[in-house]
């Protein structure tokens, strides 16, 4: 009788423990980035040029795997024509995300090999969105990040008017989350001002870096700082819109925590 009672008590305790056990962690998902050179991974030969997709993984916890498929020089048309989209579609799993930012090369009429009319650009965005949703994944449209261009009075100028408008139109029509990076990045550059905004771009004097011995005056591609600032804008808008991805952000270290790399007897808490 006593053994029977102990057995029942043990089972009851197990049920109680299971009932109050921590919930299972969310499953891992992939966040695909498709777009152009402003997002893309860079090779060491072009450092310090940095796409804003490169620092993006640091903002998420371990349940989000960022898969950056963006490629330099691609428009929506060439990304499709080169069969860069189909492998993403085939790999998509339910609850994955696809961040879609094009426009820089679509609007480049001087380069007919990549130019895409606004009408075709819309059609291509619709294709990306509809095929993502068909796989029960989540599309997010992003307006093209701004170029650094100020007028004589020091006011930032719009550089993607037609293509940002087309992106917003598709987002509204198809009820797709929209990150208006064009507007947010222009506001950021205005805050930095004409001179300080150079810090965000690939602006180098001769001799500053061995990859660019003659210097560089690039108002499209980002420095490490610029890429991180653009990624922060994207992340902040994910939080502001309360997209489900916001629940998968990396947790900040406690104020006095020792960073993981600082181990051993000489490690000291960081100063508040």
UniProtKB/TrEMBL annotation:
Belongs to the 'GDSL' lipolytic enzyme family. Residues 33-227 form the SGNH hydrolase-type esterase domain. It holds the Pfam family Lipase_GDSL_2. PANTHER family: PUTATIVE (AFU_ORTHOLOGUE AFUA_2G17250)-RELATED, RHAMNOGALACTURONAN ACETYLESTERASE. Residues 250-272 are annotated as: Disordered. Residues 1-21 form the signal peptide. InterPro entries: RhgT-like, SGNH_hydro, SGNH_hydro_sf. The gene is rhgT_2. This is Rhamnogalacturonan acetylesterase. Keywords: Hydrolase, Signal.
